[in-house]
């Protein structure tokens, strides 16, 4: 569905708990309260526990594309590091993730710069657990070139276990969009399955915004 690669930010301030050494932490219980943005059908997000860890469990029934979005100005001069953990059990079969028919992911996390009324200035970086494209791949979103996809994980090698990711948002916006961003306007998670029609689920742990020298 067009638009799923980028979100327009709302004027809404939602904060997480302070992280040790500065920054913010968003627990799964907080993430499930984020605003739902539905592109096609619903996706169920609920707080749960798996492998002894608190998590957001996303369940997509085969026709869903709904994100949980935090609309918040994030100062990248203070907290340029985005850190989170995620977990999947399986990937999609026989898809082309560069096409609209294959633009589904067991787990993804967005960072969004909102261009406001200048929609052509909106940019997003989408970190995904890919099914087919190899780890380290980058490509434009099938629905909008203003969103760039990054396959941090791919395939089933680490399914059934928690994986922690850590990214420098300033570096990634520079590399993927050629822009020097010191501010973004939101982050989001989404497990979607509407394009492939294959049911899917994913899990998300804490999401952290950290200083570059943070833990």
Mind sketching the topology for me?
Elements lengths: L16 E2 L5 E3 L1 H4 L3 E4 L5 E7 L2 E8 L4 E11 L5 E8 L19 E6 L9 E8 L7 E3 L6 E8 L8 E6 H9 L5 E10 L7 E11 L5
Parallel strand pairs: 9-11
Antiparallel strand pairs: 1-2, 2-14, 3-6, 4-5, 5-14, 6-13, 7-12, 7-14, 8-9, 8-13, 10-11
Overview of this protein structure:
- With 215 residues, the protein is mainly beta.
- It is built from two helices and 14 strands, in the order E-E-H-E-E-E-E-E-E-E-E-E-E-H-E-E.
- It has one domain (36-210): Jelly Rolls, CATH 2.60.120.
- 43% of the residues are buried.
- The chain has helices at 28-31, 169-177; strands at 17-18, 24-26, 35-38, 44-50, 53-60, 65-75, 81-88, 108-113, 123-130, 138-140, 147-154, 163-168, 183-192, 200-210.
The number of strands is 14
**Can you count the helices?**
2
Distance between the ends: 37 Å
The appropriate CATH architecture is Sandwich
Number of domains: 1
Beta-strand percent range: 35-45%
Structural class: mainly beta
What is the CATH class designation? Mainly Beta
The outline comes out as globular
Give the helix level as a range of percent.
under 10%
Biggest β-sheet: count, sense, barrel?
Answer: 7 strands, antiparallel
- Give the averaged pLDDT, no decimals: 91
Helix and strand succession?
EEHEEEEEEEEEEHEE
Low-pLDDT residue intervals, each spanning 5 or more residues: 8-14
CATH topology: Jelly Rolls
Radius of gyration: 16 Å
């Amino acid at each position: 569905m067009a638009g799923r690669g980028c979100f327009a930010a709302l004027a809404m301030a939602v904060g997480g708990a302070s992280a040790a050494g500065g920054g913010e932490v968003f627990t799964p219980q907080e993430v499930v309260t984020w605003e739902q943005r539905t592109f096609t059908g619903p996706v169920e997000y609920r707080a749960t526990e798996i492998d002894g860890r608190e998590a957001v469990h996303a369940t997509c029934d085969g026709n869903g594309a709904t994100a949980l979005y935090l609309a918040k100005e994030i100062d990248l001069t203070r907290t340029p590091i985005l850190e989170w953990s995620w977990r999947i059990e399986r990937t999609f079969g026989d898809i082309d993730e560069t096409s609209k028919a294959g633009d589904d992911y067991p787990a993804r996390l967005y960072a969004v710069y909102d261009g406001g009324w200048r929609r052509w200035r909106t940019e997003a970086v989408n970190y995904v657990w890919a099914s087919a494209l190899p780890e380290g791949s980058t490509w434009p979103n099938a629905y909008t070139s203003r969103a760039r996809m990054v396959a941090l994980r791919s395939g089933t090698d680490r399914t059934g276990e928690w994986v922690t990711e850590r990214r420098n948002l300033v570096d990634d916006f520079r590399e993927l969009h050629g822009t020097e961003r010191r501010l973004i306007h939101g982050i989001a998670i989404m497990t979607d399955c509407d394009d492939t029609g294959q049911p899917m689920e994913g899990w998300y742990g804490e999401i952290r915004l950290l200083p570059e020298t943070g833990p």
